[in-house]
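Notebook, bench 3.
Goal today: get a predicted structure for Aminoglycoside N(3)-acetyltransferase from Streptacidiphilus pinicola so we can plan the truncation constructs. The sequence was checked against the plasmid map this morning, with no discrepancies at the termini. Length recorded as 263 residues. Pasting the sequence as submitted so the record is complete.
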Amino acid sequence: MADWTEDDLQLGLKRLGVEPGGVLFVQASLRRVGPVVGGAAAVLRALRLAVGDSGTLVAYTATPENSRTSPLYRAATAGLSAAALAAYHEAMPPFDRRNSPCSPTMGRLSEELRRTPGALRSAHPQTSFAALGPAAGEITWEHPLEQHLGPDSPLGRLYGLRAQALLLGTGPRTFTPFHLLDYQRADHPRRRYSARVLDERGQAVWRHFTGLDFDDSGFGELGRRVAPLVPVRHGRVGSATAALVPLRAAVDAAATLPSLVWA
């Protein structure tokens, strides 16, 4: 079939229930959306038109590659000698909230939003978020190192603002808001993190801090158990299946389940 157009995507978003105003957190697989005339920029334009001038778009723009504790780092450094490891550390680009691209694992749409003039980004060197719209400053203004994905992070502010989550070609297996549940467990495992960042003088330094040890392996099953409990709207945008999820309701419903599969 022919490539999808912005008008096609806008129609799909409207049918799904995306309306002007409010806050929309987007997790997208553009590969599943299919070919679009204008690429990722056109998808972002369609989303901006769907939420309107009074709406705010948010994307996860994480950069796990600059951490000594991420799975990506461990895979890249496995088997290196001490000298090679030291050279690798020296060459690691420090996180710069204005210029560091988000990880390719975040998807092209997240990077497109981050690079858009007017977008703001939180300062966490591993789990940053970018936002575009009137509420962008409120969402991204502060992001403590110890609060990767916690109540005092942009994710927590999305919860407080009663944002909607748009799963565009993705599913509950990658539903980042479920990590807010981790912070409700007093006994949740913690670990030491290290990340390379730019300091106030523009020098590359290492920041060391303690945070929760995350595991999202049970999110798929958790999402399936939550789905009947919240008013999720389903549809198609381009070639992708799509779901519009009330973020706060989904997290709250998951918290009421008698036995969390990832606990």
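The longest helix spans residues 39-51. Residues 6-63+108-186+217-256 form one domain.
Flagging this for group meeting.
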